[in-house]
Amino acid sequence: MSERLEDIAARMVAEGKGILAADESTGTIAKRLDSIGVESTADTRRDYREMLFSTEEAMRSHISGVILYDETIRQQAKDGTPLVEIITRTGAVPGIKVDKGAKPLAGFPDEKITEGLDGLRERLAEYYDLGARFAKWRGVIAISDGLPTWGAVKQNAQALARYAALCQEAGIVPIVEPEVLMDGAPANHSIDRCYDVTEWVLKTVFTELYDARVSLEGMVLKPNMVIDGKNARKASREEVAEKTVRCFRATVPAAVPGIAFLSGGQSDEEATAHLSIMNATYDMPWKLTFSYGRALQAAALKAWGGKSENVAAGQRAFAHRARMNGLAARGDWTQELETAA
Ligand code: 5MM
After folding, report:
1. pTM
2. How far apart are CA 123 and CA 128, in angstroms?
3. Distance from C-alpha of 220 to C-alpha of 320, rounded to nearest angstrom
4. Dihedrals φ, ψ of 17, to 5°?
5. To test ligand 1's pocket by mutation, which of 103, 138, 182 has the most ligand atoms within 8 angstroms of CB?
6. Which of 290, 266, 272 is nearest to 341 (CA)?
7. What confidence score (pLDDT) does residue 340 get?
8. pLDDT tens digits for 31-71?
9. SS3 of 264, please?
10. Domain with 140 in it
11. What would the pLDDT profile of 2-12 be if each residue is shown by its tens digit?
12. What is the pLDDT of residues 238-250, one digit of tens each?
């Protein structure tokens, strides 16, 4: 019998654990590898991701799930073991990015719509057979003078809802990711503007999910935190935590089992600190954890540098960030622990 959506979702937001977002599309991972002077090939992409997924103790203790890209879910480690098997052995759930990226939205200059709904039912069936038990779809909303527009918010929310309904039909838990960008140009908006836009986007997304008959108990929300633009950062950690929790209390139904934040361009430590303060300070109806890409991987990528003799160093760096974020998911992270390590 297949596992219930509610049970998979509960595993994804298990106490003290969070999600590793390793679903960079080919263009994005090429940029990441380029930053350390490594050419992006199927083998280098595999080697890098194999290094992360086989960091056993960290995966076992702090990682509940891994979001993969189409290429990765089909790849084998150097010794021939499927990468999916390496992940499941640690107890983590394999997941898959199913959107086909954010493309210009016709009629809406400077706004985007995420594509990938055509043929999604068939692709989900294949990914299920390949071992995926959750999926991810990211819609992006940019803030600038006059943006976002209602048209862009509405159409992205509708696409997220149609995707989520198809996932649940396939026995796959949808991660619903509406990202209000902190680093889109010009990225100089205030935290209060981010609050207003995030509130608007989340209200719209949950209305669309209801209309599409998506079961809230069988999904995970992956949002941005309420934070000022990257080029205008001045809000304190406490203010980010307070405004994020206030915004979510006003918009996210208690039936949703968990919220797993994206890091969105925050520094590694900021992303960890914000999550920890929220968990330590507030009572909330949902689990609050991480689904970080850059904030979990940046240090490991740098320490590895594409050299096989640095695999242990890369794994140490990844294990450290996974542990710090695992602590944050319980509200137990401190600056002292960060520094001591
Ligand atoms: C890991 O990056 C994901 C994929 O990016 P592209 O589709 O642009 O290649 C991205 O969707 C990611 O899952 C989320 O944005 C969270 O990552 P960050 O780095 O913001 O924590």
Report:
1. 0.98
2. 9
3. 25
4. -125, 160
5. 138
6. 272
7. 83
8. 999 999 999 999 999 999 999 999 999 999 999 999 999 99
9. coil
10. 5-340
11. 799 999 999 99
12. 999 999 999 999 9
Cα(1) to centroid of ligand 1, in Å? 32
Q: How far is the CA of 199 from the centre of ligand 1 (A)?
A: 21
> Any idea what the CATH number is for the domain that residue 39 is in?
3.20.20.70
Amino acid (1-letter code) at residue 11? R
| Residue nearest to ligand 1 atom 11, measured at CA | 138
Whether 221 and 267 have beta carbons less than 8 Å apart is answered as no
Total tally of structural domains belonging to the chain: 1
| Centroid of ligand 1 to alpha carbon of 315 (angstroms) | 20
* 3-class DSSP state of 157: helix
Of all atoms in ligand 1, which is nearest to the CA of residue 28?
9
112 lines ligand 1 (CB under 6 A): no
pLDDT tens digits for 193-223? 999 999 999 999 999 999 999 999 999 999 9
